[in-house]
């Protein structure tokens, strides 16, 4: 009987996983160079070292799929890029955004450009046709770190590809050398584009920075739930064992409530617990920074012993939250109408080859769930094999993903 149940379980996972379609894949990333001479020169000067370019974040707008390539190591050609979705090549070249010039690191004594892009982890495409970029400003992170420009929010008009605004995080937003900002979540409605808020988790300094576009102002929020769980920092992914202390990282916003605010669901990366708080708290500076607001945060539940998640995304139509499952090579879902626990947190897809380190997920305007996997622990702690596929972008519809699961409530 146990053997039969195991086989049945594997068959179910295989059937679910079949819904996840391969879109793009690479052994090593390539870029749309202006010409072959430019590529040759970059290779010669080591401004482009192919094996040092790892894709990490993604987001779709119309016919563009944006892909970020953080400057973990020297030799990253361009950090913010897009792929035309009509690309016929299975391993297309990345097109730097907004331009090659913007992605070039300024030389010594050279002032950075207004639309300068240094090193980007995650991005957010909002309903107002804007691209929000959390710019770390830090190059060669794993080698000789160089803070080229301050951590900042850059906002681009996707219809014109022009920079609308850049906001440098303030001194009070940054917790010394501990802070690291690798994600950005935008809270906005289409009828109030100028009243947007951005939530920026600080995974190293254990806080969240809130930015108000209307006030052009930011503030830092602290809470115990933003810290990592010391019992959940030991992970094994892709055959690599490592220990991380990453705090609050994934944030996803639920639909508008009757009071006009949303529920922000969040988790530290090194944790298997999901938490939440109303954006009514975060968006009010005096309330957000008041220690008395501690009790207004909620523990939603646990995801199981190996339930660590990087990215998360919320589908408002079905009221379902999707989360990456790093140690399970999978994506899981949860419907907040139920209490979060392992039996209400099913896998919607799992693949022990294609989904090694599901680094980012995103839901587009057509309710497609996009997934980026990149074997990042191997990239950081060992060495990727250039003869095998290392990076993948996959896709499924939200409705297909939850069909027949506990999330379909």
From TrEMBL:
Gene3D superfamilies: TolB, C-terminal domain
Name by which UniProt lists this protein: Protein yellow
GO cellular component term, pick one: extracellular region
Subcellular compartments: Secreted
Signal peptide: 1-18
Keywords noted in UniProt: Secreted, Signal
Lineage, uppermost ranks: Eukaryota, Metazoa, Ecdysozoa, Arthropoda, Hexapoda
Pfam families: MRJP (PF03022)
Secreted keyword on record: yes
InterPro entries given in the database record: 6-blade_b-propeller_TolB-like, MRJP/yellow-related
Family per record: Belongs to the major royal jelly protein family.
Major location category of this protein: secreted
Entry keyword annotation includes Secreted: yes
